[in-house]
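Sample entry was shown:

___
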Amino acid sequence: MNMCRTQAPNLLKPERGFFFFGFAEVYNPSSKDIEILNNKGIDVTKSLTVRIRDTGGEYLPSNKHYFEVDDVYFSGEVYQIQSISLDSEMHNYMKVIGTLTV
């Protein structure tokens, strides 16, 4: 998984300045994740949840950041981070929920 951020207001062309690379578990959002997005008024049809190891402050995800999943099934797709939380099941991990940018 690659994390990137943009400083440009145009979401169609996010800046490709990657500043975090790492392995991640990628899965469809759980019902709890969907509830979080619904409470924020976000369309959940194109959402994705990833679990990354807690970096101990080396990288702090923000909802202004974007991520890509380096996998053939997600090729070319860029997701905007919508929610970040510590994983309640695996305490050394963070759960990041993202939605597909248009």
Strands lie at 2-5, 17-21, 24-27, 47-53, 65-68, 79-86, 93-100.
